Amino acid sequence: MQARRKSVQCLSPTGLHTMSYQEWGDPFNPEVLVCVHGLARVSDDFDALAKNLADRYRVICPDVVGRGASGRLRNPMHYQIPQYVSDMVTLLARLDVVKMDWFGTSMGGLIGMGIASLEGSPIRKLILNDVGPALNPVALARIGEYVGQAVAFDRFDEALGYIKSISQPFGVHTDAQWEKLARDVLRQNAAGQWIKHYDLGLGLPFKSVTAEQVTAGEAMLWAAYDAIRSKTLVVRGENSDLLSLETATEMTKRGPCATLVQISSVGHAPTFVSAEQIAIARDFLLRDD
Fold first, then answer.
1. Can you give the pLDDT at residue 123?
2. Which residue has the higher pLDDT, 107 or 147?
3. DSSP, residue by residue, 137-203
4. Which terminus of the chain, N or C, has fewer Cβ atoms within 10 Å?
5. Enclosing domain of residue 191
6. Residue 74: which CATH number?
7. Number of structural domains, the chain?
């Protein structure tokens, strides 16, 4: 089974850009699942999950602008959630669906929260993978430190070692799984060196955030979460440094009163490439309730 690569034209304050996406399953299936990756990842992260669910869904996996096969923004300061939400609304219009389900890892979950909080939202079921309205500033700083950092490796094994080092919180994976996780977010430049497959400008918004903006942003995220009416599942890596157990537990008591599942021996964030993790998503999405 192979995905079909498509694209849609989106708008930012500085002009037009393309957002590339992969489509799995029957293109006429009215049951649609949108899977959106984390900050420095790409649509290929969902290959295993999409293959597993393509018998029941038309699965859509976009490269958020600035990543992978998608275009880049002229002003890197627009690499923020409001722009991503706007792009996804354009994508949903292209898909021409009335209702759909959403799987979002980290940043992809925040985008899903933004859409699910809107009146008339098309999201029926929502999976938030290791993310919530309150995010640990220390973890954000850890992620922000490497996102905008330029690297270039002459050999793939060196690049693989780098990806493994910054992705250790993903937990235990086979050698083949690590190689795929690395190849998905790397590309070769004209000199044959392995470099990151995203715009290094993604790191700029992190550097300009103030403590006051963090506090205000958290209040807005909780307000968005409280407005969600979609059936919601929160998945937390047991050792996550981004989503605290306190926040995850609070998410079960307010807003959509989410169901909480924790995955042992994993930090930020579960990759959903193993059969055990895929089963968690499949059971939630296909359960009649």
1. 98
2. 107
3. HHHHHHHHHHHT----BSSHHHHHHHHHHHTGGG----HHHHHHHHHHTEEE-TTS-EEESB-GGGG
4. C
5. 4-286
6. 3.40.50.1820
7. 1
